[in-house]
Specification:
four-stranded antiparallel sheet, 187 residues
């Protein structure tokens, strides 16, 4: 579990990385301590006026959490192929959300998936797709739609998980800025 102070610190790390990247600088490097030094996967999502503006993550728990968040935040504002890079005029309009991933657990049956609690990863060959737990809730999907959309994100047929693709679920601690730019507050 990430406590309140650690959440605030991760949001600060993410905000500093976004600002530095947009300003053409290298994000600050710090030696993380405590829970922020433990290996973990994470995603950083940027929203602007309630709409997705960028999202990049790292699934494997093989690097310190604070470093993963910093790197993903920098990439979310500059390297998400779905969006142009965030500009300096947008910085005050961008709200940051961090999702700290729990371990991946293989799924054998759709009944094991709980909307709002689990995120999904599907993989077949070199194709892989991931959707965070909050995505299904935001779109009002049921379990079948959530699995199909995860397959779609991977570029696989909607029923690929029934035809050899591997499917995992995971939980995530999700928190973010309550007001754009206010990295000291979390939801």
């Amino acid at each position: 579990m990430i406590n309140g102070a650690e959440r605030v610190e991760l949001l600060r790390v993410a905000r500093e990385a976004v600002v530095a990247t947009v300003e053409g600088q290298t994000p600050p490097q710090r030696r993380p301590t405590g829970a922020l030094a433990r290996p973990a996967g994470a995603f950083v999502t940027l929203h602007q006026h309630g709409r997705l503006r960028g999202c990049i993550g790292h699934v494997e728990a093989n690097q310190p959490l604070a470093e993963v968040v910093s790197r993903c935040a920098a990439a979310a504002c500059s390297a998400d192929p779905r969006f142009a890079a965030v500009g300096a005029s947008e910085l005050k309009q961008v709200a940051i959300e961090v999702s700290v991933l729990g371990p991946l657990v293989p799924v054998a049956a759709m009944e094991e998936i709980e909307i709002g609690r689990h995120g999904l990863v599907v993989e077949q060959g070199r194709r892989r797709g991931l959707l965070l737990p909050q995505v299904a809730t935001e779109w009002g999907w049921d379990v079948a739609a959530f699995v199909e959309q995860t397959c779609h994100k991977a570029g696989l047929p909607l029923d690929a998980w029934q035809r050899g693709a591997r499917l995992w679920k995971f939980e995530a601690e999700v928190f973010g800025e309550t007001t754009t730019g206010e990295h000291g507050r979390t939801t």
